[in-house]
Design a protein that fits this description.
alpha/beta; 416 residues; 7-stranded mixed β-sheet
Length: 416
């Protein structure tokens, strides 16, 4: 894999900081776990493709040889570096849940004896709907076939050893583990190398939802022997609202005869415009493509990935740990440390998102109002959870301090 050209981390000047539709210039944006900020280079990247469409129309596919025809390949090198994979193992396509369904077709292979899917709970609802639907498609009952591991109980986290014990307990009935390396509600980062090793020991396929992981934590999907993974690109990858997602399929599976939904863009390149009676897939992750890529969305993602090419996720993760540790130290030594608690207080087991619970849920409404007044953008999970991300590409230590001061002023005033 290529070495990074620079050792920079913060690129704040290359992003538009939102103004919430007003003249405010001091908006504190801590919601990158939901939607990343707008790279300033996106506009020109999209306008370039619009100009090609205007000037060349259909010939834009083969401008300079293969411009739109192979456009998806332009983002593969960066994606491979970010998730720790070979370029042949990644492809940008579709949306996250669509890709999840495509992976289920190939990697959920139940039998009457081994038909259960193990997953983490709380699980994001879209994942739950998708898993339930594929289980029902095979005639099983999700209430029986979906094993949800309670990773967050009374704001206490499960350990990796406990999680592996549950996998071992269900090894004779489970055929697939579907896991979020970073849980969306607790912010806990799981030990995927140890978990993947346990899965393969018991012949359980492992698939990952990287929605809260990609661009946030260091990943080595190939080395960890993960079978498949999917992600969205609108969070930490800053690709834009509803932009193109991504998919990883380990090269161990590229030459296997697997059940798969097939479409013309999964064909070998020389056959994509041929009128063939039978599908002839390319032996890479690209074989899971169905349709030609949406160029304007891909251009936006490409512009953001150009920033990632000038740093590394390892450096970003280190910076995240520094920012979250700074906030945690402020909280521990404050007069509100009994009113707000960080759910994941294990620095080595989290990314840049801090999930916090208010010990008095009645505080949430007043805090929401105060944060809005202070032009602070975070998000809330009722009845008592706040999620805030310190994204090192554009968030700073001063912003972390400002966020804490608003929390302290508000919660201490309520307690007085």
């Amino acid at each position: 894999m290529m070495k990074m050209k620079e050792q920079n981390v913060c690129f704040r000047e290359e992003f538009h900081i939102p103004n919430l539709g007003t003249s405010q210039k001091d908006v504190l944006y801590l919601c990158g776990h939901s939607l990343g900020l707008h790279p300033k280079s996106v506009r020109s990247a999209i306008e370039e493709e619009l100009q090609i469409w205007q000037d060349f129309a259909v010939e834009g596919h083969f401008k300079d040889g293969s411009h739109w025809f192979s456009y998806h390949k332009k983002v593969s090198p960066a994606l491979a570096r970010i998730v720790g994979a070979h370029e042949s193992e990644v492809v940008a396509m579709n949306s996250l849940t669509t890709n999840l369904h495509l992976m289920m077709v190939s990697f959920y292979r139940p039998t009457q004896q081994r038909y259960k899917i193990i997953t983490d709970a709380p699980i994001f609802p879209s994942d739950k709907y998708a898993l339930d639907s594929v289980i029902k498609r095979f005639g099983f009952n999700p209430a029986d076939a979906l094993i949800q591991i309670p990773t967050l109980t009374k704001n206490a986290l499960i350990s990796t050893d406990q999680l592996i014990d549950i996998i071992k307990k269900n090894k004779d009935q489970a055929c697939l583990l579907w896991l979020n390396p970073v849980n969306y509600l607790s912010g806990q980062r799981f030990d995927i190398p140890a978990i993947a090793k346990a899965c393969h020991q018991y012949d359980i396929t492992i698939g990952l939802d990287l929605a809260h992981s990609v661009g946030n934590i260091s990943l080595e999907l190939h080395a960890w022997q993960v079978d498949c993974a999917v992600w969205c690109s609108y969070k930490y990858l800053n690709g834009g609202p509803g932009t193109i997602g991504g998919c990883f399929v380990h090269k161990n599976h590229h030459d296997k005869v697997l059940p798969r939904l097939e479409g013309w863009w999964g064909q070998a390149e020389e056959n994509r415009f041929a009128v063939l009676d039978q599908f002839q897939g390319v032996p890479t992750a690209e074989a899971w493509q169905l349709s030609n890529p949406p160029i304007l969305l891909m251009a936006a993602l490409r512009a953001s990935l150009d920033i990632f090419d000038r740093t590394s996720v390892t450096l970003l993760a280190e910076s995240s740990r520094e920012l979250t540790a700074f906030f945690e130290n402020l909280l521990i030594n404050s007069k509100i440390n009994n009113r707000i608690k960080i759910i994941n207080n294990r620095p080595h087991e989290r990314g840049n998102m801090l999930c916090m619970w208010l010990t008095k849920s009645s505080d949430l409404s007043a805090l929401q109002h105060r944060l809005k007044e202070g032009n602070v953008v975070v998000d809330y999970r009722h009845p008592d959870i706040i999620r805030a991300s310190f994204c090192p590409l554009y968030n700073t230590r001063d912003e972390v301090l400002r966020f804490f001061e608003i929390l302290e002023d508000t919660l201490y005033a309520q307690a007085a």
